[in-house]
UniProtKB/TrEMBL annotation:
Naturally occurring in which organism (per UniProt): Flavobacterium gilvum
Cross-referenced PANTHER family: PHAGE INTEGRASE-RELATED, PROPHAGE INTEGRASE INTD-RELATED
Lineage: superkingdom: Bacteria
GO biological process, one term: DNA integration
Entry protein name: Integrase
InterPro entries in the record: DNA_brk_join_enz, Integrase-like_cat_sf, Integrase_catalytic, Integrase_recombinase_N, SAM-like_dom, Tyrosine_recombinase_XerCD
Biased composition range(s): Basic and acidic residues: 426-437
Lineage: Bacteria, Pseudomonadati, Bacteroidota, Flavobacteriia, Flavobacteriales
Length: 450
């Protein structure tokens, strides 16, 4: 059982700090300042409390009694939870006991996030080589979603959440609510926790009082083995291209699918392209775009005759990502992309994604396009070239993305391949030089005997 006591750490003839220390057993003892002071001559060594010889000391005695009771209740409330009781926690509870933290509108985390959302376009973001203005649309939407979750949690707990409230107990409770009540996947819940940590760190830099635990927040992520995004092979894409589809809507979705698997872009970037993105150089087709998420300028060379024909003569009309996701499942079903495959599908009855085997067409989404491109062209085209098109910044992330472990022979094989090409080019140049007629020299006499 926890014990709570008070003491002075100095006997000087002047006011000194009153310390509170709690023992949680097994030598686990923590001590912090209560924020109160007293002259040692007014302190009773027998009771470890102020002598009640003046009105001021009687008030101080009652405040310490109040703090003792408050700390006992707070410790008992969290003993059954995985909360770390340390100096940070104890200091926070002392402030709560005496309402020493002024909770202003500026300190409300939802107000701060809303201001971040409102100023998303002018928000300064650090990038390689300096700064830029404006966060990506997906990042903005992520903060919008986190604010909605926090607002809903405030209604559930009937308490406004301030930055000073971001204790381990709060984070643990909020995360459990996201996972157990809202039925969110681990990565979705972790994204909200990560956003909270981000705004806490930023708010503290701006002078807003933030609970010191915020820096210790740990972000949990689902292992890559548990993440399943399907790809379509060249053979499967050929089956989709040849499938007998009569519906205009499904024909349009098929075009987007085939183009998407050939240019390797995210669904939002794919659906934003128009004929204005197309240009030609030396008779070859190129597609220029700027990725919404990374703001990177990307150029893709189009090599498939079928895709070139689509872009030039039968450009698909724009639809929403949701409609495209619905339609491409039907397209793949008609094309008989139906082998049993492991994956996750959202179940409306349980409110979460269920992992099991499904017909593959049920698992195809716009996320499949970019991954199919990377998987299909991997080792056929140098990895840095693929990364430049897909927008991946690190090869390690790219390999995880396509589930390709590091191949120690890959760079050596590529070097050998290009060495062979260079050697053949040199041999051809040498042969050409040897076959060229050698210059003939003729001696011309100048008419003298010399």
């Amino acid at each position: 059982m926890a014990s709570i006591n008070f003491r002075l750490r100095s006997s000087a003839n002047k006011n000194v700090s009153i310390k509170v220390y709690t023992s949680l057993g097994r030598g686990n003892m923590i001590e912090v300042s209560t924020g109160f002071t007293i002259n040692p001559k007014d302190w009773s060594d027998n009771t470890d409390r102020p002598k009640q010889n003046t009105a001021e000391n009687k008030l101080l005695f009652n405040n310490l009694k109040k703090l003792e009771s408050f700390l006992f209740d707070s410790i008992n409330a969290v003993m059954s939870e995985s909360v770390v009781i340390d100096n940070f926690w104890l200091e926070t509870k002392i402030k709560e006991c005496f309402n020493r933290v002024k909770k202003t509108d500026e300190g409300l985390i939802t107000n701060y996030i809303q201001d971040l959302i409102d100023n998303a376009d002018t928000r300064k973001v650090k990038v390689k080589g300096g700064f830029k203005h404006g966060i990506s649309l997906s990042r903005k939407n992520s903060f919008i979603s986190t604010k909605q979750m926090l607002s809903e949690y405030e209604k559930k707990t009937k308490k406004k959440i301030h930055f000073i409230d971001i204790t381990q107990g709060f984070i643990d409770g909020f995360e459990r609510w996201l996972l157990k009540t809202k039925k969110y996947a681990v990565n979705t819940a972790s994204k909200h926790i990560a956003n909270i940590k981000t705004v806490c760190n930023e708010a503290e830099k701006k002078g807003i009082q933030v609970n010191s635990y915020a820096k210790q927040i740990n972000i949990v992520s689902e292992s890559d083995d548990d993440r399943y995004i399907q790809t379509l092979s060249f053979n499967e894409l050929d089956e989709i291209r040849k499938a007998d589809i009569t519906s205009e809507a499904y024909q349009n979705a098929r075009k987007w699918l085939l183009i998407g698997c050939e240019i390797g872009q995210r669904g939002g970037d794919l659906l934003n392209i128009t004929k204005d993105n197309i240009r030609y150089k030396n008779g070859k087709m190129y597609l220029d775009l700027i990725q919404q998420k990374t703001k990177k300028a990307v150029t893709i060379g189009i090599i498939s005759p079928y895709i070139i024909d689509l872009l030039e003569n039968s450009f698909p009309y724009k639809i929403s990502t949701q409609k495209l996701n619905d339609h491409i499942k039907k397209v793949c079903e008609i094309a008989k992309i139906n082998q049993m495959t492991e994956g996750k599908i959202f179940d409306a009855k349980t409110g979460r994604k269920e992992f099991k085997e499904y017909e593959k067409y049920k698992l195809i989404t716009t996320h499949s396009f970019r991954r199919s491109f990377c998987s299909n062209y991997y080792k056929k085209i140098p990895t840095p070239v693929l990364m430049g098109i897909s927008g991946h910044s690190k090869e390690s992330i790219f390999r995880v993305y396509i589930n390709a472990p590091e191949d120690t022979d890959e760079n050596a094989d590529l070097f050998m391949k290009f060495s062979d090409l260079i050697q053949k080019q040199r041999e051809a140049e040498q042969k050409k030089t040897e076959q060229e007629p050698k210059p003939q020299f003729t001696v011309i006499k100048n008419g003298t005997n010399e």
